[in-house]
TrEMBL record:
This is Annexin. The keyword Metal-binding applies. Keywords: Annexin, Calcium, Calcium/phospholipid-binding, Metal-binding, Phosphoprotein, Repeat. Homodimer. It comes from Magallana gigas (Pacific oyster). The keyword Metal-binding applies. One of its GO terms (cellular component) is extracellular region. SUPFAM superfamilies: Annexin (SSF47874). It is found in: Host cell; Secreted, Extracellular exosome; Tegument. A pair of annexin repeats may form one binding site for calcium and phospholipid.
């Protein structure tokens, strides 16, 4: 089915959704089909069209008709990405106890534009009664965390990491090979994207801040981990190995502890391979004692249109089974059908 804007019929979809929720019982299969064959932007249009057509709120109807994890996943799919991130952070902070793992997963993996959008909407999501300000997320983080972990989260929540521009990336592409199926293979000269002298200096500073002294200079770790762009940090990790014969994550393990250590390791793992980081998070969510459905839903929904293909590849390589198979075996009912439809069998 062609889902381009030109051929997509939103009116047909809202009629289909309305009929699925009218009368006795709910047609969950119909709801699953519509929302998993549309992207997030199209689902935002569906909400508007539904209200225009029926004078009803689609989200309120879904909330009253569905239940359990299936309802949670469907509701998540109808929320814009930044608003969903804001909702998840609100839950992590305002819920019973602080969910540090969720704060780390969201704040350490988002790009500057994603963080800046999150800052704009967070106040309305978390505390509509408070005066709107993009600094509200910082205040909530500071009120619910402490120490070096707090400072790392606040730094990450600025959305001010130096990032490579599209022009710089294009200049670093030395060769494009087009495969038989039409896909392009890019040969990127990463040394053009990183200041190798800076990478060496930063590696030495990290060594002096950790392995080479009694105690750890946590501020130096925060500064370098939070301000350098990903290609620069990748070069720094390589220089660090040359200098110490030790991977940066090993040093983080040795020199730091607790949630601060987990946050630094999340950044390091994302630099090396972001899809692998999420594959590991999914494995932990599914394999643990009881399924961590909040994490499972959050990752599947938030990465569906970004890098789910790559995450599935890493998951298969890591576990010798597909993510689809793990979800199929560990969930049930309409919830299982929905997640499996988003992830895809192949």
């Amino acid at each position: 089915e062609d889902l381009t804007k030109k051929k997509w019929n939103a009116e047909y979809d809202v009629q289909y959704l309305r009929s699925a929720m009218r009368g006795l019982g709910t047609n969950e299969d119909a709801i699953t089909h519509v929302i998993t064959t549309r992207n997030n932007a199209q689902r935002q249009d569906l909400k508007k069209k539904y209200k225009t057509s029926y004078g009803r709120d689609l989200i309120e109807d879904i909330e009253s008709e569905l239940s359990g994890d299936y309802r949670s996943a469907v509701m998540a799919l109808f929320v814009p990405p930044a608003v969903y991130d804001a909702y998840c952070i609100k839950e992590a902070i305002y819920g019973p106890g602080t969910d540090e793992a969720s704060l780390i997963e969201i704040l350490m993996t988002r790009t500057n534009p994603q963080i800046n959008e999150l800052r704009k909407v967070y106040g309305d999501v978390a505390s509509p009664h408070r005066k709107a300000s993009d600094a509200l997320i910082e205040k909530d983080i500071e009120g619910d965390t402490s120490g070096d972990f707090k400072r790392l989260l606040v730094a990450a929540s600025q959305g001010d990491r130096y990032e490579i521009t599209r022009e710089q990336l294009e200049e670093a592409v030395e060769e494009i090979t087009v495969e038989g199926n039409g896909t392009g293979m890019y040969n990127v000269n990463y040394s053009k994207l990183a200041d190798m002298g800076q990478a060496k200096r930063d590696a030495e500073k990290l060594f002096k801040a950790g392995e080479d002294r009694w105690g750890t200079d946590e501020e130096e770790f925060i500064r370098i981990f939070s301000t350098r762009h990903y290609y620069q940090l990748r070069a720094t990790w390589n220089e660090y190995v040359k200098l110490t014969q030790r991977d940066i994550t090993n040093s983080v393990d040795r020199e730091t502890s607790g949630d601060f250590r987990s946050g630094l390791k999340a950044i390091a793992q994302n630099i090396k391979c972001r899809p692998k980081y999420f594959a590991e998070r999914l494995k932990k969510a599914i394999k643990g004692l009881g399924t961590d459905d909040k994490t499972l839903i959050r990752i599947v929904v938030s990465r569906a249109e970004i890098d789910m293909v790559q995450i599935k590849k890493e998951f298969l390589e890591m576990n010798k089974q597909t993510l689809w198979k793990w979800i199929q075996d560990d969930t049930s009912g309409d919830y299982r059908k929905l997640l499996c439809a988003i992830v895809g069998k192949n």
